[in-house]
Amino acid sequence: MSQSIINSTIKPFKATAFHNGAFVDVTEQDLLGKWSVVFFYPADFTFVCPTELGDMADHYEKLQSMGVEVYSVSTDTHFTHKAWHASSDTINKITYPMIGDPTGTITRNFGVMIEEDGLALRGTFVINPEGEVKVAEIHDLGIGRSASELVRKIQAAQYVASHDGEVCPAKWQPGEETLAPSIDLVGKI
């Protein structure tokens, strides 16, 4: 990536998702007005992907309680998502929208397309209610992600967004002390 995606506004898209037994249209407008996670993975019916998507499903209730919607995205179709949902116990527990991106538009918008394979890298993007990317994490295909660590990062992003002038140090957890950068703090950490 030649330019950072952090603080950029999400680009327009229109796609179809499999969500709670139905096919639904999703656009960038659906991500506005709340915190969102766009969670890219390479392909349905694979190996690491269901472990990540299942882990995200296990944390979905917590994320929703924080005002966060999750959208998983692969370059498969929404039809493939439905078939995978019906055939896998792990995927069957997913209740967040599973977006099909067969044209690769969304995947390219976020800079995670592996062009020669037509697949997405493992990319996780946290988007604030204004549609700005606040967290971007991209992994190679063999490295699975942790939804519990994502929850912590979103908690920090939400805290910083609502507490002007404060920042969250490494491993910060809700309720712990934050930092207020100032000249008096320089060299004291």
Radius of gyration: 17 Å
* Overall pLDDT metric: 96
Strand content: 15-25%
Oligomer: single chain
Helix content: 25-40%
How many strands in all? Answer: 9
Distance between the termini: 32 Å
| 3D shape | globular
Ranges with pLDDT <50 over ≥5 residues? none
Task: Summarize it.
The chain has 189 residues and is of the alpha+beta class.
Structural features, described:
With 189 residues, the protein is an alpha+beta fold. It has helices spanning 48-65, 78-87, 89-92, 105-109, 147-162; strands at 14-19, 22-27, 35-40, 68-74, 98-100, 113-114, 119-120, 122-127, 133-139. A hairpin with a 5-residue loop joins β8 (122-127) and β9. This is Alkyl hydroperoxide reductase C. It is an enzyme of class 1 (oxidoreductase). Thiol-specific peroxidase that catalyzes the reduction of hydrogen peroxide and organic hydroperoxides to water and alcohols, respectively. Plays a role in cell protection against oxidative stress by detoxifying peroxides.
Ordered list of secondary-structure elements with their pairings:
Layout: E1 14-19, E2 22-27, E3 35-40, H1 48-65, E4 68-74, H2 78-87, H3 89-92, E5 98-100, H4 105-109, E6 113-114, E7 119-120, E8 122-127, E9 133-139, H5 147-162
Parallel strand pairs: 3-4, 4-5
Antiparallel strand pairs: 1-2, 1-5, 3-8, 6-7, 8-9
Record keyword descriptors for this entry.
single chain; 189 residues; alpha+beta; seven-stranded mixed beta sheet; 5 helices; 24% strand
